[in-house]
Write a structure and sequence with these properties.
By secondary structure, the protein is mainly α. It contains two helices and no strands. The model has no long low-confidence stretch (mean pLDDT about 70). It comes from Streptomyces morookaense (Streptoverticillium morookaense). This is Transcriptional regulator.
Amino acid sequence: NHVAELLDQAVYHVEHLRLGLTDAAAEPAAVTAP
């Protein structure tokens, strides 16, 4: 299911972004970095 793959990828990226934000909370540039 292609939609399921996209959802899995979205969740994966969101989790990594959230972890990155908590690790670099003192780095505002990290919020806009891809």
